[in-house]
Design a protein that fits this description.
Elongation Factor Tu (Ef-tu), domain 3; 4 domains; conserved putative lor/sdh protein from methanococcus maripaludis s2 fold
Amino acid sequence: MTAWKQLSLSIILLVGAIAVAVAFVPGAADLLQKAGLPDHIVAMIRPADALKDGTANTADNSGRRRGQNIPLVVTEPVVGGIVNDRLSAIGTGDAIRSVIVMPQAAGTIREILIKSGDRVQQGQVLARLDDDEQIIARGQAEVALKSASEKSQLYRNIKSSVSRMDVFDAEIVEQGAKLALQSAELALRRRDVVAPIDGIVGIVPVVVGDNVTTASNIVMLDDRSEILVDYWVPERFANTVKVEQPVEATSVALPGRVFTGVVEAIDNRVDGASRTLRVRARIDNAADELRAGMSFNVGMRFAGDSYPSVDPLAVQWDGEGAHVWRVADGKSSKVRVSIVQRNPDAVLVKGELRDGDLIVTEGLQRVTEGGAVRFARDVAQASEVITQ
């Protein structure tokens, strides 16, 4: 093959390759123009649709590049939050009345009339001590009283034959005998150990035959018709907690159950070491489901103070303190805030924010004062429309 034929074939193949590239490779025609190929040649091989829409595509690409420079952000609206609206504290329950029953005299236990768990009434005999000596002493007092009464009566009948002093002495002896009998009867009654209150019997630590004194513990009685729960609240609630204020209590022994009650009493001073105030609540226990000594989680509700609530991710810090980025009319602006209370899912702040204001939570790195922003949700919706 001659040289001119080879040159012609090479030129034809090159032009064909350029035409294919321009037809199927986006931007190839622009690249050829930049390489110095004459415009009329590029126009001959550029696809017609590319020529027709070339200006629009260039404008679209330019606009797209400018849009990509605008920060993409995620926002959350400001909502109202309440601080100090609820108090939760751990307390210990006690029966409304508890009494350790002790004998009023020393002696040997002869009989026990109760067992653990019994419900007793005030005045009911719980145990008896040996009382032989007291019975004898009462009998002697009765005999002495009878003798003194008869002698006094006799002197009164024959007072004309005896002096007035003898009659007076006989009456004094009679009164003394009456008092001696009352003392003997009291000593005998004290041999019975009786319940001072209505209540439920605890474990009885003594048995028949035990020698006891006035310091011995016979049994403990609990009146648990109501339960008193003592708990401690922070100092800031000192002027908020009021007597008769409703409370709610739960116990680990009865999960899922909520018991209601009221504040029974408030201590008159704040503890200087813990900066807490002692409060006592009274909880109804008519069904006898609660026991003294149980631990309770006590909750109280208050009106509280309202503050703007924002996502914890929205709070940023700089040299002047905390701030958030608010978006309005597609523009971002910095709003100074101070932290009031941190919660696991929200932060209560004080600042010039209103309910419904959009606060940036993601994409904060590129946000600037007065700068334009794009919403991630809008971009996602646009992508879905294009895909469909």
